[in-house]
Design brief:
It is a single chain. The chain is an alpha/beta fold. Strands 1, 2, 3, 10, 11 and 12 form a six-stranded mixed β-sheet that branches. Strand 2, helix 2 and strand 3 form a beta-alpha-beta unit. The two termini are 26 Å apart. The relative contact order is 0.17. The protein binds fe (ii) ion (2 copies).
């Protein structure tokens, strides 16, 4: 099974890149399933039903998110009604929405449908929100998901490389892949861990790379110079789709290949 994960989609340029590049990537790599982090898809902050539909219409099967979850109030609608939209699992009990889901691969032949579980978890080190322990909750959730399928993809939305690597090692052999998001900088440490989990510390972001993590440069520098709040508009140029391509052995759920993706628009 071939799966593509797309790193944080930033604003309209990011959505546009997915719309134009994904159909081509789907065909080129004979993709079975596509997951994308959409936490920055609405003007760079948060997600709305409208931006989520655009991403689904472009061919993404499941959207994950992260700490920008609450930036747009319309997200409540998505959390209440859209099972293909996930928020980090470790928000307080009672938070609307779901942290994981089990989905059918649309491409497989009828009678031979493959189930894919997707899990979204948020880290705690250097993150603003004091969420529940991601290690303990993820371990419990993975155990539950494995009763239905061994093919499990995890988006770990976190800042610190140490927390991300430890999390990948912790789940090694229990899930097919752990890919990090949130820093918007793609790391070069893709690997198959010893017990068969594909790992990448950060997938990067999909959007304008001539900027600061997808935003215009000047206001960000101004903010560092003055400490005064500034509006960070989404940048425009050098749009790249970042992500990772993962090949999974269906019978065992183990990954056999992981490759970074950086596709310019
Ligand atoms: Fe984030
Ligand atoms: Fe992000």
């Amino acid at each position: 099974m071939k799966l593509l994960f797309i790193g944080d989609i930033v604003g309209q340029p990011g959505r546009n890149a997915v719309k134009i590049l994904l159909p081509k990537l789907r065909e080129q790599h004979a993709l079975d399933f596509v997951i994308a982090n959409g936490e920055n898809s609405a003007g760079g902050s948060g997600i709305t039903p409208k931006t989520a539909w655009e991403i689904f219409d472009a061919g993404v099967d499941v959207i994950t998110s992260g700490d920008h979850l609450w930036d747009q109030k319309e997200v409540m609608e998505l959390l209440a009604s859209e099972k293909r939209f996930l928020r980090p699992l470790n928000y307080p009990a009672g938070t609307p929405g779901l942290g994981s889901g089990v989905f059918e691969n649309r491409k497989s032949e009828i009678g031979n449908r493959k189930l894919i579980a997707v899990l979204n978890v948020q880290g705690r080190t250097f993150m603003q929100q004091p969420l529940d322990n991601p290690f303990l909750l993820a371990a419990e959730e993975v155990k539950r998901l494995r009763e239905r399928t061994k093919i499990i993809f995890v988006d770990f939305h976190a800042e610190a490389t140490s927390e991300k690597i430890a999390f990948g090692r912790f789940l090694d052999g229990q899930v097919s892949a752990v890919v990090g998001t949130h820093t918007h900088v793609q790391t070069a440490d893709e690997q198959i861990l010893p017990r068969g989990t594909a790992y990448l510390t950060d997938a990067g972001f999909t959007g304008p790379h001539d900027g600061c993590l997808g935003r215009e440069i000047e206001p960000v520098i101004e903010r560092f110079l003055t400490n005064m709040p500034r509006r960070f508009e989404v940048a425009k140029d050098r749009v790249i789709l970042h992500g990772a391509l993962i090949e999974i052995e269906e019978a065992t759920g183990k990954a056999v290949k992981i490759q970074r993706v950086a596709e310019a628009l």
